[in-house]
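Hey,
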Amino acid sequence: MGFVVGRAVGNAVTRNKVKRRLRDLMAHRLSTLREHSSVVVRANPAAAGYHVSQLADDIDRGLRALASRPSGR
């Protein structure tokens, strides 16, 4: 699992805050991933202003989309 939080998200303090939130949210969702999966979570600039519940909803939506894809992609 990796995170991409670019400078457009904000200053270093803001980027690290977003990364910590994402890391915590994904840690609780690791069991939902297929075995040997690799996931990269990219934060857009709006993520800095999101509440944790909004980030969780976005992550859940992305993971559902990922789960609906056929294996091997």
